[in-house]
Amino acid sequence: MANPKTAAPKVRIRGLYKIFGPKPQKVLPHVLGGMGKAELLASHEHVLGLRDINVDMQAGEITVVMGLSGSGKSTLIRHLNRLIEPTAGEVLVDGEDVLKKNADALRTLRRMKMSMVFQKFALLPHRTVLQNTALALQVRGIDEPTRLKEAARWLARVGLDGFEHRYPYQLSGGMQQRVGIARALTSNSDIMLMDEAFSALDPLIRTDMQDLLLELQKELNKTIIFITHDLDEALKLADHLVILNDGAVVQQGEPQQILMHPADPYIEDFVSDINRARVLRVNSIMIPLAEGADYAGDVAPHDTLEHLIALSGGDTSQNFRVVENGRPVGQIDMKELVKALVPRISSSDRKAL
C-alpha cells in the first residue's frame, strides 16, 4: 500500500500554529515563548488550536490523525484545503504552499486535487444518489453523460449498483457514507480528506466501511488523511499515525512501533486497553534467522500475533519462521511474543499501586 519514504511527501506541514481569537498575531509570541493552552485562555482569552505541527504525509499512504475531542485533529485537516486560515506555518502540497495560493488557485486545488468525506455524509437531499456522486464533476463543467457514467462506475464499485436513482433519505447510514466515498472517488483527486468519516455509523457497518476503504486503497493508492478519535480504527487503517493532544503532536510514526514503544505516559494510557494480540503483527517482533534452528511452521510478516498464538496452540517453546514472497526474512520466538502482549504499566495503574 505504502510508497517508499525516500520520495518527497505529498503533503508536508511545517511549523503550523492556529490561535482562535480576535488578535492571534498579537498573542502568537507568547505561544512561541512556551505559553500553554490553559494559560493563553486565562491570560489573553485566546484558544490555542494547533501548536508547532510538523508532519509528512506520503503519497499512496493512509495518514491517520487521532486524538480525543478538542485535541485539534479536525482543525488540522481543515488547514490542508484552507477551510481554516493558519496563524503561522506552511502547508505544502506537491511542494507548493497552499497558504500562498490566491482564491482561484485555491478553488482549483479543492476541485482537482482534494476531495472530502464528511462524518454527516453531506449529501444533497433533493438530488439522487447518482447526481450526488457526480457533483464534483458537474462543478468542473464535465458534460452530463460523462459525469453520470463515471459516477455509476464508482457507485457499483462501492456496492451501490441499482441504487443510483434513489434519494439519500431512502438509504441507511452506511449506504449514505458509501455514496460519500463514491463521490470522492468520482472526483479522481489525488488526496482524500476523511474527517471522522465513519464515526456516525453502527459498529458492524463501521467495520465494513473500514474494510472497504482498505480494499479500495490497495487498488487505487490514494493519499488519504483520515481523522478519528478511535484507536482501534486508527491502528487498523494507518500507514502513518499522528497522535495529538491539546493541539500538539505527542507521537507519530508507524502504528506498530507506537504501540510497542509509547513515547510518554499519555501515549501509554492511550494504548493500555488495546487488544495487542489482535493489532500487533509478526514483523513488529520478529528477529533475525538463527542457523540450524527448527521451526514449527511458517508465518507471514503481516499476520497478527493472535493468528500466531492460534497456530502455536499456546505452546511458548515453539519458534516460527517468517516468510515473505517465498523468502525467509526472520523468525519468531514465542517467548518474545508473550512479552509483547504485556503493555507498559500505565500512569493510572502506577497511581493505584
Describe what you observe in this structure.
The protein has 353 residues and is an alpha/beta fold. It has helices at residues 24-32, 37-44, 73-80, 103-113, 129-133, 135-139, 144-157, 173-186, 203-220, 231-237, 255-260, 265-271, 276-279, 305-312, 334-340, 347-352; strands at 11-20, 47-57, 62-66, 88-93, 96-97, 114-118, 191-195, 223-228, 240-245, 248-253, 298-299, 319-324, 327-333. Helix content is 39%, strand content 22%. Helix 7 crosses helix 8 (173-186). The two termini are 43 Å apart.
Helicity, as a percent range: 25-40%
Whole-angstrom Rg = 23 Å
Mean pLDDT: 89
Inertia-based shape: globular
Number of beta-strand segments: 13
> Structural class of the secondary elements?
alpha/beta
Query: Strand order of the main beta sheet, please?
Result: 6-7-8-3-9-10
Helix run count? 16
Profile the largest sheet.
6 strands, mixed
End-to-end Cα distance, whole Å, is 43 Å
One letter per element, helices H and strands E, the order comes to EHHEEHEEHEHHHHEHEHEEHHHEHEEHH
User: What percentage of the residues does DSSP assign to strands (E)?
Assistant: 15-25%
List low-pLDDT spans. Answer: none
Oligomer status: single chain
